[in-house]
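Minutes, project check-in
Item: structure for the 261-residue chain
Input as provided by the requester:
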Amino acid sequence: MNPLPFEIFAFIFGAIVGSFLNVVILRLPDPQASVVFPGSHCPHCKTALHWYENIPLLSYLFLRGRCRSCRQTISVQYPLVELAMALLSLFLFQRFLLSVPFLVYFVFAASLLVIIVVDIHHEIIPDVITLPGIVLGFAVSFLLPGLAWQDSLLGLLIGGGIFYTIALVYYLITGRQGMGGGDIKLLAMIGAFQGWLALPFVILCSSLLGTIIGLGAMIRQQKGGQTRVPFGPFLAVASLLYLFFNRQIIDFMIWYLSRPA
């Protein structure tokens, strides 16, 4: 069977979900807003969008990045989120085909994508995503091949516990909050979905990415140690890397640890 039509469908399905994620990203930080009502509209002039203005990826190109009514610029974030979710859906289908793991990790990847963008803009990681995500991650461990429920339980306990301990020690030493509770709950969710074996790579990779980006931000902002860089996006990106390359990562870790001294 030629998988190409199914891969095209997976890409389109991901783009459609990405369009909805844009609504979630825009409205979720506002406790008074609903992600369902009202329908899609221009964030500038509030004009409701016609169906042909709401086609994932294509409408942005047809409209040349501007609202048809008020001609204000449409953020490039909209097509980027749609494209990112479309590619994630495609890669997940290539990895798992149409299966329970595909559906589980599709929801997981979509959640991480929302967290990345929301944390970048607002420096918050919504509990409405991470807390149900912790429960869901542990629940689906009974359905996923290759992830025992014991590994999931250890993942959420160790993941949350490590960052909680780091945050507590930092606060006791400096008297300042160095890590938000959102990061703690996010790592617990990652551990629940991916098991405790994912945590060394996720923590190491996110710390490395955070250091590189943080140094760049310090140079650009000229604020020294007061520079604020949200850590959630780095955790999410590292988790996605592990999701797609866990076999290679584990093989490398085994090889590295088994090298002669």
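Outcome recorded: Residues 99-261 form one domain.
No further action items on this chain.
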